[in-house]
TrEMBL record:
It comes from Dolosigranulum pigrum. Residues 173-312 form the DUF218 domain. The lineage of its organism: Bacteria, Bacillati, Bacillota, Bacilli, Lactobacillales. Keywords: Membrane, Transmembrane, Transmembrane helix. Pfam families: DUF218 (PF02698). CDD domains: YdcF-like. PANTHER family: ENVELOPE BIOGENESIS FACTOR ELYC, INNER MEMBRANE PROTEIN, PROBABLE PERMEASE. One of its GO terms (biological process) is peptidoglycan metabolic process. GO terms for cellular component: plasma membrane. The chain crosses the membrane at residues 6-22, 29-50, 62-93, 105-125, 137-164, 320-338. Gene3D superfamilies: HUPs. This is DUF218 domain-containing protein. InterPro entries: Cell_Envelope_Assoc, DUF218, Rossmann-like_a/b/a_fold.
Length: 343
């Protein structure tokens, strides 16, 4: 009887998470969190069905669900540690290739800080003497940093989910987000975005390209003009290119581009992989129903850029995460008060 109830409870959780998953817009961190929870619960349910004791008493496929369940849980648990390793290794590669500049130090310094802070964290919680005020402050900052590390891991999963479009829609508009000019010409990063957009355009012959980018303070003309010229040189008809030449950031890229469209669906956004999720989240806030495509970028450069994009996401959701910070302060304050009064 207990076994049947366990099966029913586990299956209910799996189905509940699956229903929540398909009803959640994938352009969010919630989708990624639900996806991870669904995969863990599904493999846990399969391990119950096949009986976890089969792992030691049978060979072959009987123990496979159990092995997969344990592997997935271990991978999720080790995800933040892997992220720290990637931050440090790719940060070093970025500096070796592009030199020591403030913007190139972000991922390396972040990885080093996370290691050092967690070493101190372990030292504080294992010492026998009561923590000092300074140690309490460090403990709180480490908890906040580890929370952001976990959140950034989910952000990476959410980004990867949005890289893949299993169903190719008949697109009407392909929005190419600007990325700056060099001496009035498209930069290599921007050229990569346009190349990716042209590939998608050729698969959708009835679509139009929207080149979105205004004029920067040191640029002779709007980015959109240079983007159009680049696309025409690659064989794209001028009549299939729409210019949005007034934007100065991603929000304006999408808002002003939406004003130029006669339809609000069958839309794709093209930018670099590291920038894609935040662009899709902004599009969601603007009520733009769309999918996204990422242009390839060198991995060591993408890691540093991902860190900047994650910070941009936190700023975008600052009200939510300020509320979370307030909750952490209250909980930690209660913990410190308990330590001081009762222990």
């Amino acid at each position: 009887m207990l076994s049947i109830l366990t099966h029913i409870a586990a299956l209910t959780i799996v189905l509940g998470l699956f229903i929540a998953l398909i009803k959640t817009d994938r352009r969010s961190l919630m989708f990624a969190a639900l996806l991870l929870a669904f995969l863990v619960s599904l493999l846990f349910y399969l391990s119950i069905v096949f009986d976890i004791t089969a792992l030691s008493s049978h060979a072959g496929s009987i123990g496979l669900p159990v092995v997969l369940f344990i592997s997935l849980v271990a991978l999720i648990a080790l995800g933040p540690l892997l992220l720290i390793a990637v931050l440090i290794i790719e940060g070093i590669l970025l500096i070796r290739r592009h030199g020591i500049r403030p913007k190139n130090l972000l991922s390396l310094f972040l990885g080093i800080y996370l290691i050092i802070s967690n070493i101190f964290f372990v030292h504080i919680i294992t010492q026998t003497a009561p923590p000092t005020t300074g140690q309490y402050i460090h403990l709180f900052l480490t908890i906040c940093a580890d929370y952001l590390l976990l959140l950034s891991s989910i952000y990476v999963v959410a980004s990867c989910v949005n890289f893949v479009n299993l169903v190719h829609e008949d697109l009407k508009y392909i929005i190419v987000l600007g990325a700056g000019l060099i001496n009035g010409r498209v930069s290599p990063i921007l050229a990569g975005r346009i190349d990716r957009a042209m590939t998608i355009y050729r698969r959708n012959p009835d679509s139009q390209l929207i080149m979105s980018g205004g004029r920067g303070p040191d640029e002779p003309h709007p980015e959109a003009h240079a983007m159009k010229q680049y696309a025409i040189q690659q064989g794209i008809p001028a009549e299939d290119i729409i210019l949005e030449e007034h934007s100065s950031n991603t929000f304006e890229n999408l808002k002003f581009s939406a004003d130029l469209m006669t339809e609000t669906n069958e839309i794709a956004i093209v930018t670099n992989y590291y920038h894609l999720l935040r662009a899709l989240i902004i599009a969601k806030e603007l009520g733009i129903s769309c999918i996204g495509y990422g242009a390839h970028t060198k991995f060591y450069f993408s890691v540093n850029a991902f860190v900047r994009e994650f910070i941009g996401y936190i700023v975008l959701r600052k009200k939510l995460y300020l509320s979370v910070l307030g909750g952490l302060i209250l909980l930690f304050g209660a913990f410190v008060a308990y330590q001081q009064l009762w222990l």
